[in-house]
Specification:
306 residues; alpha/beta; Rossmann fold; eight-stranded mixed beta sheet; three-stranded antiparallel beta sheet; globular
């Protein structure tokens, strides 16, 4: 079943997956917000929706390896129910808040400003995990660091800070020309960040709600294997067509990284010493607030510098 997308219902396709055979599951189900999917029922009662979710959540836990991880993307309203269910089956790691500003204002509650990505380990004592970094936040006009580090600039990692559980630097795919015909397509570099911190080259990623194939694209670019389920024939055809031109090229030298707009947006902490040779750095570390590092060549994906 490796590196294939399967057309059909999740409940039937899960039966084809062996126990503890998957390294990571990423699930992005319909949010039950009456979105106009091609064939999904996105308007269940609360009881129906939670019951349906619990069925595939139980299957996800079954198929993940003891060293594996689970990521569930949803809105907070439903994430609290997912967390309550998963807490009895595996080990909670993080509630990742992915910042977004796409929802309309509410008159009866605070403005919804993030999506939830629940992060669980099948077994916290065996789980595979890699700390990751992102670039420093800088002013778009002057390029200065946005955060004032005072007299501690010389102690900073020149690439950027370690990534925590609030993600504000990755944005939704909003422009129609940049996304497939799907109402809720995720950015590829969001999935790449998740895979960099939880998998190795050759690991198997399962996405039971493949949509238009973003998880498969990210997996293929990072040298991982994938299995996808999709019940809608229209979206299935988009995935197959989309994957034809995707190459395993998200590297700089020998290191897997996530690229966005020709810049590295996520890398592993353990790889920084090796990756740093691909950058021109300020001659004085204290100048980092005014002088950002520059890639020697933005076309060096998969190539080595000596």
């Amino acid at each position: 079943m490796i590196n294939k997308i399967y057309l059909g219902k999740q409940e039937k396709l899960f039966k084809r997956i062996s126990d503890e055979s998957i390294d990571v599951v990423f699930a992005d189900p319909p949010f039950n917000l009456n979105k106009k999917y091609n064939s999904y029922n996105d308007n269940m009662t609360q009881e129906e929706y939670i019951k349906w979710c619990n069925k595939w959540l139980k299957e996800i836990v079954r198929v993940v390896k003891p060293t594996g991880s689970i990521f569930i993307h949803n809105i907070p309203k439903w994430a609290i129910y997912h967390a309550s269910f998963l807490n009895n089956l595996c080990d909670f790691k993080n509630w990742i808040s992915w910042k977004t500003t796409s929802s309309p204002p509410h008159k009866t509650c605070l403005f919804p400003n993030h999506y939830s990505i629940l992060y669980y380990a099948k077994n916290k004592n065996k789980q595979k995990f890699y700390a990751i970094r992102k670039p420093h936040d800088r002013c778009r006009k002057c390029n200065f660091l946005l955060k004032d580090y005072g007299g501690k600039k010389h102690l900073l990692n020149q690439f950027g800070p370690m990534i925590g559980d609030v993600w504000t630097d990755i944005f939704r795919v909003r422009h129609k020309k940049k996304r497939s015909k799907h109402p809720c397509e995720l950015p590829v570099h969001l999935i790449e960040r998740i895979l960099l911190m939880s998998t190795d080259e050759g690991d198997i990623i399962l996405d039971p709600f493949m949509g238009t194939g973003t998880t498969a694209v990210a997996s293929k670019k990072l040298g991982r294997k994938f299995i996808g389920f999709e019940k809608d024939e229209k979206y299935y055809d988009i995935i197959i067509d989309r994957l034809k031109n995707i190459k395993s090229n998200s590297k700089i030298g020998e290191y897997w990284v996530s690229w966005y707009l020709d810049n590295i947006i996520t890398l592993r902490e353990k790889d920084w010493d090796g990756i740093s040779k691909y950058y021109i750095k300020p001659d004085n570390p204290k100048k980092i607030d005014k002088e950002p590092m520059v890639l020697l060549d933005k076309n060096l994906r998969g190539q080595m510098i000596f």
